[in-house]
Amino acid sequence: MRRLMAFLWRVLTAPFRWVGRGLTWLAMRSPLGDFLAPEPEEVPILDTLSHATQQPGDFLEGLIAHLDALRKHLLRATLALATTTIVAFYFTPQILDWLAEPIGGIDSLQAIEVTEPISVVMRVALLVGFTAALPYIVFEVLRFMAPGLSRKARFFGLFAIPIVTFFFVAGMAFAYYFMVPEALKVLLNFMGINTLPRPSSFIKFTTGLMFWIGISFQLPIVAYVLSAMGLITSKLLRDYWRVAFVLLTVVAAMITPTVDPLNMMIVLLPLWALYGLSIVMASVGGLHRRRRAGAAE
């Protein structure tokens, strides 16, 4: 009776097993195959250096293979960026109108040089294209790192892609809706001098501010990843908070488009808040790393 039930079970579940094997076969031959590969063996760094000095030919061969893989990943990421940038050209007029709203619309800008409108369109299309291609660019970075990561780290990286994109977009939105209007109040009427902005200067100022603030919003994610890898700890970030605040103040002074303290504080306060969030994320990353170490033991 047991044999009959086992036989019936195998017959009933056979289609599901075949579908599962087929999907696994397709996944292994797709870009996701890098994330399903076997986990690498953990080799101490001293053993790796010793092997490299004793057999430099194998080391150079492996280095060339890694460089070739890096070239392929960079090529695919560049193609994705070029594709999204080309598509962004179609939406550039609407985006330019939106970017120029804080200054009164695109009609408030006056070009002087003949090539100025072309450079403005290129800059806007490139920023939009980079934002649209960011998930795939991060995916290619993870594919390059996947052979040296555990499966848990690989799948965590996949789940982190939308988080990275969200923080980048949130940083750009913060710069556009809160920083740009306050900065324009000072810039356009500084010392009582009325300014007629050019498209190149205004778009460069706006897109540059949005890009760098979006990059700075990645700080908590970087802190989590470095803590999960054991490179930093939340205690280290807490102990050196004074040094970090000084460095963040210097960064805020470099990013701030004006010299007045009000706009500098608009940039600096979010950076301080992001550093505090980074301490929390580093604690979470350290906790996950200790749990993995305990499970391995």
Would you mind describing this structure in some detail?
- The protein is built from 11 helices and no strands.
- The protein has 297 residues and is an all-alpha fold.
- The protein has 2 domains: 61-214, no CATH class; 218-292, no CATH class.
- The two termini are 43 Å apart.
Features:
single chain; 297 residues; mainly alpha; 2 domains; 11 helices
Question: What's the total helix number?
Answer: 11
Average pLDDT level? 75
Helix fraction by DSSP (H/I, runs of at least 4): over 70%
**Helix and strand composition category:** mainly alpha
Low-confidence segments = 22-28, 43-49
Q: What is the string of helix and strand elements?
A: HHHHHHHHHHH
Global shape: globular
Strands, count: 0
Radius of gyration (Å): 25 Å
Short summary of the structure?
This protein is mainly alpha-helical and 297 residues long.
